[in-house]
Design brief:
Intradiol_dOase_core, elongated, four-stranded antiparallel beta sheet, about 15% helix, about 325 residues, Protocatechuate 3,4-Dioxygenase, subunit A, Intradiol ring-cleavage dioxygenase, single chain
């Protein structure tokens, strides 16, 4: 009879290094080999899982694809509310028209241009608006022209307030870049009686359209965050703003009170020495009718029939209006 062949002992397909010993006594080299084998399986499994996950998150449904130029930040975007341009627009809808003047297209709006070079004083501020085309899948609205304007550190408006009729600082136009972004270098506006601190803006289809305010496809306002206002208004030149801000809230403001400025409240970063960066995404839907512009609703708080700075209100303005 032939000799019976001894059975070879294995673990996970690997022969024991010591056939006459228990598994736990196979030695360091065998244990290391087992560990490396397991790591290889885990790595392969992880790679397969990653491929599977990618397959699950990649859709061939065109409706789920992101439109070129859109961003994840714009996924929950809502249309910017249409608001009054206020009594001091300077766009020709209420008297003077800065949009007809050569030099209005500029990024730095701190100084007047033309016959005056006076510079407005205050804490530095950069305003950055990102305009989205909601009628085109929230794509970046490249090429639109944005006209922005706001009051001085003590609440006055160039072209309207007493002594500033010949100034046009804190007003300017920028054309949105390929990302839909416009950027303005300015100073942080003050708070005047009856209004929450804000910045006005109008969006036009292109630069050529700005000479007629009726061409605006959106008119709205940026609400400034209170924490930043508190920091700025503690600085010299903003003394009146402290008391004025204490008398108003977003909920009581005649423009932002509808929803406390939910889609108009800007984000802010920076400090008083180097300045603040104010940012806001702006959804513009050209499939809806632009209903802003013109005068603020009558009965707005605290205007008393005078523009900031004590000058008479421009003709045609309701006497209790605060822009």
């Amino acid at each position: 009879m032939g000799t019976k062949q001894q059975e070879t002992l294995t673990y996970e397909g690997r022969p024991y290094a010591k056939q006459d010993e228990e598994l736990v006594d196979q030695g360091l080299q065998f244990d290391i080999g087992t560990l490396m084998s397991r790591r290889g399986v885990l790595f392969a499994g992880g790679a397969v899982a990653a491929v599977g996950l990618a397959a699950c998150t990649t859709s061939t449904d065109p409706a789920s694809e992101t439109t070129t130029g859109g961003t994840d930040a714009a996924a929950d975007l809502t249309e910017i509310p249409e608001e009054t341009a206020g009594p001091y627009p300077g766009d020709g809808s209420n008297g003077v028209d800065v949009l007809e003047e050569s030099g209005i297209v500029r990024s730095d709006i701190r100084s007047s241009f033309g016959d005056s070079t006076t510079t407005a004083e205050g804490v530095p501020m950069t305003l950055e608006l990102t305009i989205y085309d909601m009628a085109n899948g929230n794509a970046a609205f490249e090429g639109v022209a944005v006209y922005a304007w706001h009051c001085t550190n003590n609440g006055e408006y160039s072209m309207y307030s007493e002594g500033l009729e010949n100034e046009n600082f804190l007003r300017g136009v920028q054309v949105a870049d390929s990302n839909g972004v416009v950027t303005f270098t300015s100073i942080f506006p003050g708070c005047y009686s009856g209004r929450w601190p804000h910045i006005h803006f109008e969006v036009y289809p292109d630069e050529a359209s700005i000479t007629d305010s009726a061409n605006a496809i959106a008119t709205s306002q940026v609400a400034l965050p209170q924490e930043t206002c508190d920091l700025v208004y503690a600085e010299e030149g903003y003394e009146d703003s402290v008391g004025n801000l204490a008398q108003i809230t977003l909920e009581s403001d005649n423009v932002f009170s509808d929803d406390s400025g939910a889609s108009q409240l800007a984000a802010a970063s920076g400090d008083v020495s180097s300045g603040f960066v104010i940012t806001l995404p702006v959804g513009v839907d050209t499939s809806t009718e632009a209903g802003g512009g013109g005068a603020a609703p009558s009965g707005g708080g605290g205007g008393g029939g005078e523009a900031p700075g004590g000058s008479e209100m421009p003709s045609g303005e309701p006497p209790s209006n605060n822009g």
